[in-house]
Amino acid sequence: MAVRGLILLFLIFTISYLSVAAQDDDPIRLDTSIVRLNVGVVDKRGRPITDLSQSSFEIYEDGVKQQISKFEPSDAPFSVVIMLDMSGSTLGFRQVLKQSAFRFIDALSPTDRVAVIEFYDKINLRNDFTSDRGTIAHSIDAANGRGKTQLYKALDFALDKLEKEKSRRKAIIVLTDGVDTAVKDQDRAILEKVSDDTVLTTLKPDTNEILNRVLGRSDAQGVTIYPLALPTGDPDKLADPTNRQIAMFRAARTRLQIVADRTGGQLNTINRLEEMGRLYAQVAADLRTLYTIEYQPVNDKRDGKWRSIRIDVRNPELISRTRQGYFAK
Asked: What is the crossing angle of helices 181-191 and 243-263, to 10°?
């Protein structure tokens, strides 16, 4: 009997342990009804203001004032994903690209956590979130590849990683030409069905399903995305293009602007490769000026409709910037 009792106790302990371990491994689910905003504030000369408090802000959703439930100052740490386009279009300037990314790391706060993802035919996590600058620098230096551009699939992958960062502030910096291979194939299929004289007005960049899936996920987590647009994706720099090529490249560049606008980030266009390092440092500096504000919407209907967001700063001399709104899904 004593032996049976010991066996029973052992089984109970084992089951309890496995149950707790399984719970620890469960993915963190954020409350999707909470709206999270990263907010930048500048004066009329464009200088960032970083010493405001929660009482400095008022939030309106569809014109209705909301109650702020959480406020984080501009010096609170971020979890940042650096995404590097290693497709064939970047082969000619990899060293400049990597040196520029190093400048971004140098400009971050020591408490920020960084993950590095490269994308081309494959999507590789070079390192998971860490504050170890040596690890991050090694990941950037080792990035390599060639082939297609899986931009939106890589953004989806980055959002998977950020979801595990729980309630930390979140941002993605993605260096890319923006010409996603799968989306371009969809655009080409649409253009094949129309006459030449309507090619330049046919595509509706904001209706693409792949794009909108990424935007919906970034909305839910409150992730701010900063695209750094490479000159290889600029429709004005194409050599002897057809109208169909112009239409596809314009749509791709417009989608990068949509990503920035919808998430509260900024599209930084790289016209010359020498500008890349400065723009990386500029994005890092911008992150250091953002406040994070959360609220639970008064309108709790999940009807899929657009909810517009407006943030007012009590000081009328200051100007705020955040994402435009979200779809209540």
From this structure: 130
Give the residue from 316, 318, 298, 317 showing the smallest Cα distance to 307.
298
Residue 278 contacts by C-beta under 8 Å, 6 or more apart in sequence? 103
Shortest CA distance to 81 belongs to which of 217, 187, 272? 217
Query: What's 35-74+289-327's CATH class?
Result: mainly beta
Q: What span, in angstroms and rounded, lies between the C-alpha atoms of 198 and 203?
A: 9
Domain boundaries, the chain: 35-74+289-327, 78-287
Residue 145 DSSP SS3: coil
Structure confidence at residue 6 as a pLDDT band (50, 70, 90) = very low
Query: Which pLDDT score is estimated for 32?
Result: 58
CATH of domain 78-287: 3.40.50.410
What does each C-alpha distance from 213 to 15, 71, 74, 111 come to in angstroms? 39, 27, 29, 30
% of the chain beyond a pLDDT of 70: 90
Distance linking the first and last C-alpha atoms of the chain? 57
